[in-house]
Design brief:
This protein has four helices and 16 strands. With 354 residues, the protein is mainly beta. It is globular.
């Protein structure tokens, strides 16, 4: 517990340092979320997550897994299938007081044409000279959770992250960071706190400028340089309550608040330097076998070309079925402006073995 407070103490100077040197948006592929259950509930998971996906949402939730071994896979496609998002996770107990988990996340765009040599030496177009490459982001999470016996119902957890990002042979980055989480349960109430990138997540970028130097000089573009990118800390506070109706129907209502510390953002509660983005989630189950889920969040104020404004939000919908040892979940999510082409279908499968 002593080390937990030490890490929290380190947040303060990092916040001040980060506001001056770090970009507002960094490693955004890690803000999408994993698991169709979570995505169908508006990403309200800090307090209630209780499966292998807790390694991402709140590692303290790993202690709520009832299976000895639990696996999960997820696939989603965004922007009409151009970008693909995949996740795989595994969790198992170490002893009666602790759990561990390993997770892999990939977000990538494949088969991007490299047209630098489209024209041959004679000035003619030669499509055989087109090569294809991928731009992909990877995250590897190693998580640990342990019960805090001094306060019944309190669980603590941490996830160490290794980041790898690449844009073909043109550029790549390696980075690392850490998330800390806590969950407390009392009767039908659940409270969760997640400190994401608590120490700041550092990405060291390396550019292969020899591949693009000639093209960039001809087009007047700035030659990229090697650099270090910092992802600032973010805190997520979640509250959830469970209701039981006639012993067959259960309801979980949840609300999460995302706190960012990098200045004013386009969210519901915006100020400088702290902004708050609330999310709502609801799950109704019948005998813990059939699940219906709804969610809403990411409220934004959009400006039209005529200088008028309107407010938009992200609605979410999901269903789930538990078939013996397997759980199949589906979510329909929207990126935010309710455009038909931006709706995404998300599927995930979870298996629990004793």
């Amino acid at each position: 517990m002593k080390y937990f407070y030490i890490l929290l103490f380190l947040i303060c100077p990092l916040l001040l340092f980060g506001q001056a040197t770090a970009p507002k948006y960094s490693n955004e592929f890690l803000s999408i979320g994993v698991g169709a259950r979570a995505l169908g509930m508006g990403r309200t998971q800090a307090a209630l997550v209780n499966d292998v996906t807790a390694a991402y949402w709140n590692p303290a939730g790993l202690l709520n897994i009832s299976n000895k071994y639990q696996f999960s896979l997820m696939h989603a496609e965004y922007f009409a299938g151009i970008a693909k998002y995949d996740y795989a996770g595994f969790a198992t107990p170490v002893d009666s007081l602790s759990h561990i988990a390993v997770s892999v996340i990939r977000f990538g765009v494949d088969d991007i044409p490299d047209t630098r040599f489209l024209y041959d030496a004679n000035g003619a177009i030669n499509y055989d000279n087109i090569n294809f490459f991928s731009a992909a982001d990877y995250a590897f999470l190693f998580s640990y959770a342990r019960k805090f016996n001094r306060l019944p119902g309190l669980n603590l957890g941490a996830s160490f992250k290794v980041i790898h990002r690449n844009a073909g042979n043109f550029a790549n980055a390696w980075g690392f960071g850490m998330d800390l989480g806590a969950q407390w349960r009392h009767e039908t109430w659940q409270v969760g706190l997640m400190a994401r990138d608590v120490t700041g997540t550092f990405n060291a970028w390396s550019h292969n400028t020899t591949l693009v130097y000639e093209t960039y000089v001809k087009t007047g573009n700035e030659i990229p340089e090697n650099s270090i990118e910092v992802t600032l800390p973010k805190a997520i506070l979640g509250v959830a309550k469970t209701f039981t109706i006639k012993q067959k129907v259960g309801i979980i209502a949840a609300m999460d608040f995302d706190f960012t510390f990098d200045g004013m953002r386009n969210v519901l509660i915006r100020s400088n330097p702290i902004s708050i983005d609330p999310h709502l989630g609801l799950e109704v189950d019948y005998q813990k076998t059939i699940f219906l889920r709804l969610g809403a969040g990411q409220v934004q104020r959009i400006k039209n070309f005529d200088s008028s404004h309107y407010t938009t939000f992200q609605p979410d919908f999901g269903i789930g079925f538990k078939l013996g040892k397997f759980t199949i979940d589906y979510a329909l999510t929207d990126i935010g402006d309710r455009a038909e082409g931006l709706y995404s279908h998300v599927f995930s499968v979870k298996a629990g073995l004793k």
